[in-house]
Every structure is written in C-alpha cells, then in structure tokens.
Amino acid sequence: MQERKGRPFLEVFASALHEDYRFPILELFAFLYALGTFVFASFVSVSAAGELIAYSLTASLMIFPLFTFIILIFKNVAYGFGSDIEKGIIQTFLSYPLKRRWVLSAKLLSALGVALLLFLSIQISAMYVLAPDVVGPYLGTVILTYVANLSYPLLLSAIILFLTLILRRGSIALVVGIVLYFALGIVSSLASFIAFATQSPLALQVISVFSPNVVLGMYYQVFGVGPGFPSASIWTPSFTEALLYLGASYVIVAAVFATAYIYFSRRFSL
Amino acid sequence: MALILAQDLAKSYGKVRAVDGLNLTLDEGTITGLIGPNGAGKTTTIKIVLGLLKPDRGRVEVFGQEPWDNPKIRTFIGVVHEKAFFPSHQKTLDYLERACRIFGMPESRGLEVLKLVNLHEGRDRSIKALSAGMLQKFAIAHALIQSPKLVIADEMTANLDPEARSALLDLILQLHKDENVTFLLSSHILPELSRVCDSVAIINQGKVWAFGKLTELYEKYAAGIIRISTDKPEELAAEIMKLPYVEKLEKDIRGISVRVQRESEERLYEDAPKLARRVAAKVQGIETGSASLEELYMLVVGASKGG
Known about the structure:
The complex is a heterodimer of chains A (270) and B (307). Chain A is mostly helical and 270 residues long. Chain A has one domain (2-266). Helix content of chain A is 78%, strand content 0%. Chain A is built from twelve helices and no strands. The radius of gyration of chain A is 20 Å and the shape is globular. By secondary structure, chain B is of the alpha/beta class. Chain B contains ten helices and 13 strands. Chain B has helices spanning 42-49, 92-103, 108-116, 132-144, 162-179, 190-196, 214-222, 233-240, 265-278, 293-304; strands at 2-13, 16-27, 31-35, 57-62, 77-80, 150-154, 182-186, 199-204, 207-213, 225-230, 246-252, 255-260, 283-288. Chain B has a six-stranded mixed sheet with strand order 5-6-7-3-8-9, sandwiched between helices. Chain B is elongated and about 70 Å long. The mean pLDDT of chain B is 89. Classes of the chains: A mainly alpha (270), B alpha/beta (307). The A-B interface holds A 1-4, 7-8, 11-12, 14-16, 18-19, 22, 87-89, 91-92, 94-100, 265-267, 269-270 and B 47, 50-54, 63, 65, 69, 71-77, 79, 81, 83-90, 95, 98-99, 101-104, 142.
C-alpha cells in the first residue's frame, strides 16, 4: 500500500481554489486590491526619499487593500472551510489518500496563500511602478512594513480557523474574527491613553506583541505622535526591539496555526 | 482475510453511548448488511471504521491497519455517506475526473462510473444542480472511481427511485461477482438488503446482537417461527398469547409471527383456526419457517431489548 502525496494534494488544492475563487470573486477582489492600491498611491507624495518615507508610503498604500484582504480571508477561512464542515464536504476530502494535515494545508493554501499572493503581488508591483526611487533602496523597510501589518490579520485567520474547527460553524468564527479585528483599533487607542496616563510603555508593548505594526510605528516615530497621543516620548524602541516584537507576534501566529493543525489531525471527528 | 476487524468498540457523545462494546469482522468477498433501528450505532460504527471518528475504547483495523488519518488504505475503500456532499460549483464529470487523478486512475474512468449509475447524461451539470437522487447516484459513482476492494455505504439507496434502487442492487451483485468487491451496507430497507446480502449484523444499543450468514441466522432465530396471516392480528394475537406453548409473539398489520416450544408447531396449526373463529378473524395462511429479514430483525432487536 503506497501513500500518494503530490497529486492528491494538488487536486484538493485545485478543487478548493475553484470554490474559493469562483467567478466573479477572484475578479472582484483583484479589482478591489488594484483600485485600493492605485487610488491611495495617487495621494502619497513620492518626492522625498528615505526609510521613513518608504515606511509611510507602504503603510498608507495598504490601508484599503489590507481591509479587502482581511474580508477575503475571513470569507475563505470561516465561510468556505466552515461550510465544508457543516455540509460534510470535508468527509469527501478525508476519503482521499491524503493525510489530514495535507488536506488542511491544501485548503489553507487556497484560502489564505492565494489571497496573500494576490495582495502582495499587486501591492509590490504598484510600489515599483509608482515610486521606484523610494522602494528600490529601501526594499527591506517595505517588506518589514508588510510583514508587521500582516501579522494581526494572520493571527485572526488562525483564530478563525481554530474556532471553525472547534465549533464546526464558520458563522460564529466569522463574527469573532470581525469583532477582534475592530477591537484592535479600540485597544490600540486605549493602549496609547494608558501609556500616556501612566507614563509607562507597558500597554503599547503588550499590544505590539499581537500587532507589531505598533512597535514599528513607534520605531519610525509615526505612531502615537500628536497632541493627544504623545506616547512616542514614552517609548522609543530600537530596531532590534522592533524585530523581537515582530518575531514574537509570528510565534503566536504559528502557535495558533499549529494548534489548529494538531487538533484537525488528532482530534477532529465527524 | 478480514477486511474489517472491530473489537470491543465504544463511543459516547456526552452521556449517550452510541457504540458500546461492538465486535464485527468483515471477511473479504462478502456483502454484509448492517441493520438496526435509528440511533443503534450504525453510522457511528461506519465513521469509526472510516477513520472519521476516534473510538473511546477498543480496536479497529481496516485492511490490517488503523484507519485514523491513514491515507494508505483509502485507495481500496469506496465510501458512500448517508448525506453526500461535494464541492458544489463544479461539474459532475470534471469532479469525477479530478477524483480519478487523485486515485491515480485514467480520467476516462469518470465517464465510465457515471454510465454505471446511469448519470452520464448529466455529465455537464453542476453538482449543485443535481436532485437528491442524482446526487446519491453521483456519490455512488464517486465511490467506485478507484475500483475499490471494499465499499462502505451508509443508506446507499436513500433518495433513489425504485428503478434506480433495483439497478443499484444489480450493480452491487455484479461488482461482487465480477470483481469480488466486498460490501458493508447500512440500510433501513430490509427487503433490499435481503436481496443482495449474504450476511447481516443486527445492531442495537451500540452492540451487535446477531451476526452471521443469513441462512444461519434464520436457522438460529427464526426456527420454530410460525407466520399466521390474518385480518385481525391484534385480536388473534391476544388469544394466541394465552396458549401455554407460545414462547414469543410479534404482530404487525398483516399478521402474527409466533415462536413456539419444540414440537409444538402442530398444536398451533390446530389451535390457531379455532381461536380465529372465536374472535371472528379470517386466517389467510399459516406457514412455518418463512420469516423475512424484517421478521428476523424484529426478533433479534426484540431480544436485545429483553423482549
């Protein structure tokens, strides 16, 4: 008896792609990414150059496309995967000669990997077209900004996946994901207030573990600067410190995904 | 060779014991029916055998291996679930061709299995556009893609019209005869099972109460059973129950099945018409040892409940 690895994985992936991005979903989201990227790009001044500009340009360019990306992955992970479980389609996938972890990987690659690829390819292409003088020399900053901003959406995706598996209902997981997404904005503002009130960076440091774009913003001195938010004077992290927070956030993301994988492989019953 | 070996299986959902000390051995080349009332543990047993559910206790082997997360054995098993669902936005033939590639079969096998279940005219239909019966046929075609050695089906004929049911039963017999495919079929439609199965496992309250070849089970459970067909089974049953040599009695709308003590059959043949006259019932026939699978099932399930 031989285990067939390559082909079954690709076929389950292709099947998941077919469902996740059936017409006109792919077209619609690609349009939204491109629209968001180019519309916002037109408002960004690219006359100056420097690390700070590269960071600001990248961060401002991704505001709308990142939101679109989040909607797409929430739809794919919570709705797509959840409906596979609720309807019993997952039983069909589990009847194929493929380990459970590969079934989950194929589904995730479609739900998350392709969305991420689409998001990054449009974003980075646009940056190269619109601001080659800024992006070229500071590619590291650009990548770092993307990595920092994607950490929280990826954490939410992992939480949604795990909740979908546990609850067997995508809808509840989707609601939790949306609440957590909007909660971050409120919690970040609260963290700034608390940091200002207590003159301690602890609240900002805690939030940076889950959302490292906060620490990166503090590093570039663009986060929390202003009359009501003078938290930049409270905490000026070093670059190494920013990288440590970034690493910690991805460790959490990886841990939640690993928990979901272990649960699906060892305990998930139908 | 035993394709399925289940020993002392137990599985609970909260406080409900779905399977409780179940033992089952399925030999190669057999067609075995898994029958039992709703909630008896049939679907749970099938899910454990397929590796979709972990038992709380006991051991299960399929093709000599544990089924949980075991892709190696899946090439040999065709599965028809009670509720069949597939990615709905794909076309029937396209999806079956995908399944062919997954199992390493030539893509032409997709159309071949669609023809086997008489669904080839719907090859370009989207799966979501299939009716319940067509979806069931599609699930059966999907289960046959890899030319499996073992087919496990939970309510395989549900949603099918009588003609399609009959054709499917013929297909089962043909696959069994030509390719020595082993079947484990769970169904509530007992006449169908009795048409194709050579052995049955009668399951109730999570246990197998009777398992073996149909002829042996009839011999064991239905010997000494006399079937009395009558228009007033209620009234006649009440009278017959009073007879001292009657051990057990089951009634339905068409008559009564009576188990009597050894060598008391003749006495019942004499007494039944007399009792029928007393309650003004018409006796349409009296036969010995002609229990149907349904009657056998009722006897065993009745015994399992302590009846």
